[in-house]
Design a protein that fits this description.
There is one protein chain. The protein has 286 residues and is an alpha+beta fold. The protein has two domains: 131 residues, N-terminal domain of MutM-like DNA repair proteins (Alpha-Beta Barrel); 139 residues, Helicase, Ruva Protein, domain 3. It has nine helices and ten strands. The strands form three sheets. It has a four-stranded antiparallel sheet, with no helix packed on it. It has a four-stranded antiparallel sheet with strand order 2-3-4-8, covered by helices on one side. Strands 9-10 form a two-stranded antiparallel sheet.
């Protein structure tokens, strides 16, 4: 799933490619992805792109007074085309979900792999009207996201596990499963640690959050969309590296399995050497 650093890289890349360009059309191939009907997607035809921004993990292409907003979800991705697309022979039968075509034929395709379809697109006059954007917490890379703001978020979460608090988009916008693992590893904190913590620990976690996200944004800057997934994977220290050696201490990276996701951590760096309880794995081993 693309998170804040990858979406920011897409924003930078697309803004350079799209700003000032004229949209010929937007084709919705998988009709389930379009969550709005007014304005119609046809209203984008002939419009000039005035900029590309993001809201957390949401990609926002501004077309005059309209916004084409996309949430790539778990398995969505964007592929740039430098030439006009070939005619579609079997619409809806492959991963292609939507297609934006500029007046010279170039543009991009949005695809979604797998059977669990959660990619979403919106055409709106007001980004705040999109339910997911309306619920977003503060952006962690904006100047107003101070350590004091962060401390307030953690205090309000109380005994909730810090892993879930970091991932909750209503608390902080843009952090997902991968970067929450990375932040907690840098901070040397257990994913199960309660969010309410002392001032020194808040400071430690805040610095880890800022350093992890800013370094990831810097690494992704200028990377082509086709290479972003590879770049992200290569830059991760613990997430997705179960069974490998921790790059800090050399201990074996462990994981906890949930019904629809997993997370990874280093016992030595984060949990005092103790493996965390994994109920799913425990049931499999009985």
């Amino acid at each position: 799933m693309p998170e804040l650093p990858e979406v920011q890289a897409l924003v930078t890349d697309l803004d350079g490619r799209l700003r000032g360009r004229v949209i010929d059309r937007v084709d919705i191939v998988s009709f389930a992805v379009l969550k709005t009907f007014d304005p119609p997607v046809s209203a984008l035809a002939g419009g000039v792109v005035t900029g590309v921004t993001r809201h957390g993990k949401f990609l926002d292409i501004e077309v005059g007074e309209l916004h084409l907003i996309t949430h790539l979800a778990r398995a969505g991705w964007l592929r740039w085309r430098s030439a006009a697309p070939a005619p579609m022979t079997r619409p809806g039968k492959g991963p292609l979900a939507a297609r934006l075509v500029l007046d010279d034929g170039s543009g991009f395709d949005i695809t979604e792999a797998g059977t669990k379809k959660s990619l979403a697109m919106y055409v709106t006059r007001d980004p705040a009207s999109v339910p997911g954007i309306e619920r977003l917490g503060p952006d962690p890379l904006q100047p107003e996201f101070t350590e004091e703001v962060f401390a307030g978020i953690l205090a309000a979460a109380g005994r909730a596990q810090i892993k879930g608090v970091l991932r909750n988009q209503s608390n902080i916008a843009g952090i997902g499963n991968a970067y929450s693992d990375e932040i907690l590893h840098v901070a040397r904190m257990s994913p199960f640690k309660p969010a309410s913590m002392g001032a020194d620990e808040v400071h430690q976690l805040y610095l880890a959050l800022q350093d992890t996200l800013r370094q990831a944004v810097a690494r992704a800057d200028g990377v082509a969309a086709s290479e972003l997934k590879k770049e992200k994977k290569e830059g991760l220290r613990v997430h997705g590296r179960t069974g490998q050696a921790c790059p800090v201490c050399g201990d074996t990276i462990r994981q906890v399995i949930y019904s629809d996701s997993t997370f990874q951590y280093c016992p030595t760096c984060q949990t005092g050497g103790k493996p965390l309880a994994d109920r799913v794995l425990s049931r499999l081993l009985k």
